[in-house]
Amino acid sequence: xxxxxxxxxxxxxxxxxxxxxxxxxxxxxxxxxxxxxxxxxxxxxxxxxxxxxxxxxxxxxxxxxxxxxxxxxxxxxxxxxxxxxxxxxxxxxxxxxxxxxxxxxxxxxxxxxxxxxxxxxxxxxxxxxxxxxxxxxxxxxxxxxxxxxxxxxxxxxxxxxxxxxxxxxxxxxxxxxxxxxxxxxxxxxxxxxxxxxxxxxxxxxxxxxxxxxxxxxxxxxxxxxxxxxxxxxxxxxxxxxxxxxxxxxxxxxxxxxxxxxxxxxxxxxxxxxxxxxxxxxxxxxxxxxxxxxxxxxxxxxxxxxxxxxxxxxxxxxxxxxxxxxxxxxxxxxxxxxxxxxxxxxxxxxxxxxxxxxxxxxxxxxxxxxxxxxxxxxxxxxxxxxxxxxxxxxxxxxxxxxxxxxxxxxxxxxxxxxxxxxxxxxxxxxxxxxxxxxxxxxxxxxxxxxxxxxxxxxxxxxxxxxxxxxxxxxxxxxxxxxxxxxxxxxxxxxxxxxxxxxxxxxxxxxxxxxxxxxxxxxxxxxxxxxxxxxxxxxxxxxxxxxxxxxxxxxxxxxxxxxxxxxxxxxxxxxxxxxxxxxxxxxxxxxxxxxxxxxxxxxx
Length: 602
Ligand SMILES: *Cc1c(COP(=O)(O)O)cnc(C)c1O
Prior knowledge:
Blueprint: H1 9-16, H2 22-27, H3 39-58, H4 70-74, H5 76-95, H6 117-129, H7 142-157, E1 165-169, H8 172-201, H9 207-210, H10 215-228, H11 232-239, H12 241-244, H13 246-257, E2 265-269, H14 275-282, E3 290-293, H15 303-315, E4 320-326, H16 338-348, E5 352-357, H17 376-383, E6 390-393, E7 406-410, H18 413-416, H19 445-456, H20 464-482, E8 489-491, E9 499-504, H21 511-526, E10 535-540, H22 541-553, E11 563-570, H23 585-601
Parallel strand pairs: 2-3, 2-4, 4-5, 5-6
Antiparallel strand pairs: 1-7, 6-7, 8-9, 9-11, 10-11
This protein binds pyridoxal-5'-phosphate (PLP).
């Protein structure tokens, strides 16, 4: 990574005297500010929101009369309970003062930071009305708000607002599960069709091919079979492994056709989030069914190996249930070459291709114009999302929305409704997602917060894109600053994003020595007295061999252990590069690192 013009400290300091651009100043209205600068406005806006809510309640059924009188409120018992509530609340809020200071520009650890004011307001507004977006019966407005928020996100990633759909989840983990449940249902249905078709025609099915036959081929089989046999639907169900179980399906294939089939597989890059392992266990496939795709020397999914993996699987009787690409990995913020993965998947038929954009999905808001602040390589990857089948995005990460807010979206509605299950006591309408969500009751806080962010900041290059561009710039500036430390900093070179990982290593130093230094630095920076908070991660050869070799080779390390411990920094805070603050955070951070490492050397 080379230095981007205008990102060196000297340049930023030279700029310090000059005022911020009006657009940049306007962005400051969206956050409370490190010193609660926008407190008065937030307080009055939330207060007005409460007043509006009180009025709304009071205006209804006035004739019913009051249930709590002024006399009640003046009684000693009443007052006692109130005072107690205040005390207990005080205890709670005081205890929370020891909470991780997520708002601070000095917090540069995990994938969260200050949340946006419109998000807080949307969250609170929804909280007061407490909609349950399981159906319109329990969320007349919440369901609409959710659908409108989804529409904004569909536009952001480039999915069609007419063909695509989706819903909010409690987070990226569940959104990923939503993808697996549909990929499994689809391949189960297609394989059932292939088997039932062969049964009726007296031929032999090819389940590995059937698992990726596509809806057109399925419809053709369906039409032909319908004309031949009225009980076609029953046969389809009788062959669906989601009805009869995988074990029975494999036995039947062997008994009736003499076909040997093995369990279906998911192909997932080695830098996967651990929710994919959870999925493999949860969906009853076991770890074995998750085949890892190798990474290249910058940690991106190696698409040549993906192609090999698909061939290997089908040659060995494993139907390929789904392929996953990652937009913004949890450890290093890497964006896979999604466009190349799409092309490889297409070579083989209709394999469910899911993009895990829990972290980096919002980079799509930066748009496709050069100079948007992100590399062309990442832009190209993001521009291929419309060719995928589904995507996970976490508004509670780069969307600056409070927990819990994840999103699952599907490019084609036909693939969304695959998993519908009805409940006799719920009246569902067209707009409801209840029948198809893994979760039951769902809060509208996440969707209302995202709706507010989309309608105010805007999920566009001029809105959100600018905030994210600044984060990416923060990474460049910090890297530049780090290059001045006494012990040489080695930054892991990956794709462009706002995650920066580094070690401090002298030329030729062995990995065990460097790892010990990194662990010590992380320990020091985890103390409550530390001026900055970072996170750490460990790259293992087993998953990142090409990257580990290239990275450790960059200082001629003796690889006496097969892992590299890194300081990991997720740069999300909108004020990290502030020109206004007395502290220039990137510089202060590097000073802190120097102080800690110096003390150790004594
Ligand atoms: C964070 C993350 C997840 C899981 O999201 P949660 O909201 O924590 O459940 C999944 N995939 C990736 C790439 C992530 O970064």
